[in-house]
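# step 3/5: fold
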Amino acid sequence: MATSSPVWTVLLAVSGVWRHRACLSMLPIIEALLVAWCATLAFRIALVVLRGSWPDRGLARHVFPTLAGGGTILLLMSSAYAQMESPLAIGLLLAAAYSFLRGSRWGLVWLSFAALTRLEMLPLLALALVFAAGVRKVVDASIAAATVVAVFAGFLFWQFGVVLPNSMHAKSIGYGLSHSDAFGQFFPPRLTGHFFLCGLLGFFLCVLIDCSFGTRPAGEKDFRWLPAISFSWGMIVILEYTVESAMMFDWYLPLIYVPLLLGLLLYRPAGNASLWLRGTLLSTAILGLTTIMIHPVKSFARLLVPIVRGTPEAVGQFDGFAGFRVHQYFEVGATLHATCPSGRVMSPEIGALGFGFEGHVDDAFGIASPLALAFQPLRSGAASGGVPAGYVHALHPDVIVSYDFLATEVTNDAELMKEYRLTGITSAMHSSTTGRQIEAGWMGSRHLNVFVLRGGRCDTGAVASGLGNLRF
């Protein structure tokens, strides 16, 4: 029931044909290849743009492509977690951009797949289709792109009764952010955030002026508008998340920063642009580029430590033990599938758990199970995104899986604790150097809790025995 990324969901379903463990072991390799693909495309895009803009300036032709490719690598690797579908979405976006720059109208099809990999790109696809409506000989490509979107929208409606997933709506309810909190997610902290914002807004204003009054050569193959549209789309997504008061996780930030990066690096003013406009574009671009890269450069420096050491605890200290928690969820899911495949499982984090358990999974947060939104945000004062006790009372799932931090409403409900048997799995990992245990639970959680309904579809003893054999 994962609807937030239609293309990625289909690819995961196809990958499920093979053994899960083998597939999981391949994911880091696939991710590395996708990051390399993105960097190569970013380099090629910069090269094509600069060849058309500064044909006689050899230094710029080397420096700017290197910045575009290297910046893309840093942005993709700067997140605290594995990127999930982000590199694929960005790779498809860059493939569309490169196709446009080479004069091909079929970049619209690449862009449609990018939009269905991460739905934040739907506004960008809409912008491109509006622009394409005024360009000759792109009707067939526009129809093909619209057909791709229609097919996936039909699939979602057939499966879930919705045309677009409710992921952003669920995040705005579950986390309860204010508009200012949502807006602040996209900018570096403290003083640099103000410089970043001023640089982006100044650059955006100058781009609007230049696009409105600047004179460019006409022609179907002139795609110098691409950096402007890319940058505008990045700003639109920031506005969209701010209006919705939705949570933007760190591992999705490259989806916004890469288009901003390309716009800042590659936009060239029109031939008749005034000196003050050229100077303002350059200064605001430098300001935006400098501040946008502070976080990824620092994160990349931190990433070198686990790469050099190569120990699980070094990796855990970098990613906040996210990889360890994913591993725990997957192993618990696989154990539940082996001991109670017909059971109904509920969890506020369904990804790795649902990958290991192949039966019915209810999303307590509400992204994949919209009925849960009636009980979010939690009224008890418990942590945002936790398991609502009212939702458990409504469905009575056979199993509930959650870390301590997200299970407080369940553990504090005396009636539920009588109905369920609790098995707590330690959330500590063993150090490969000292042999001691390292706390790796979510927000200080000491256990991954598994609640099994007494008298339900699952044999409580069999489940407890299977979970007791797990070692981390």
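# step 4/5: annotate
The longest helix spans residues 20-53.
# step 5/5: archive (pending)
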